[in-house]
Fold this sequence. Notes:
By secondary structure, the chain is mainly alpha-helical. The chain has helices at residues 6-29, 34-51, 59-78, 88-109, 113-122, 130-149, 151-158, 167-208, 212-237, 241-262.
Amino acid sequence: MLALMVLPIVACLILAVIHAYLGLHVMTRGVIFVDLALAQLAALGALVGYAVGWPFHTTGSYFFSLGFTVIGALFFALTRHRNMRVPHEGIIGIVYAVSAAAAILILNAVPAEAEHLKDMLVGNLLFVDRPEVIKLAILYGVIGLVHFLFRRRFWAVSRDTDTVSYARVWDFLFYATFGVVVTSSVEIAGVLLVFAYLIIPSVCAFLVSDRMRMRLLVAWGVGISGSVIGILTSIRFDLPTGPAIICTLGSVVVIAGIFKCSG
């Protein structure tokens, strides 16, 4: 049984590494639910693709999903300003609520809506194959390299300290690369696990350290260890893998909070 979980474990480790890093940007920006909104837009795009004839986990479905996510990324970049009358989080929340409602309306019109809803929320992590894992590793490797090469610019935009005229372009590039990651991740892991990977490790990192490099190491450690423990727990007790990982990561937050309070 454990041998069958090698590919899901590798996929989870890849997901944990890229999402933990992006989660630190999300926490720094103070837009906690942008990942959930983009993940929901990705799921909505896949559902629209399905409604017009593209089955889930096909190339056509992926590009529908990516298209919706990139549109969302552009919208979030254009609506972010220094002196906003309405907090950006409020706009992000509206996008999430509307896209989730639209997804439910589409699900109501397609057969086997319960199964599609489950697939949208928790993905198909157990059925990931070698080509998918390799594609994921290459794609996220390229995006990671882009963020490493232009890390000063991306962090300046996230910290809102970039005052050059084309800062909005870098803001869009951040959200666009973020959207590509979310789109690919939702197809495998589902909306809930993607949100957990983005937020929980970074929250733990912010709790235990004030230095960004240490936060990144902590976030990676939490994401990787939570993934492995969650998968092993799901095998041992025959539990759904995604929810098991999420609950494991959630327990780490509690431990980090206790550590912070006692320190």
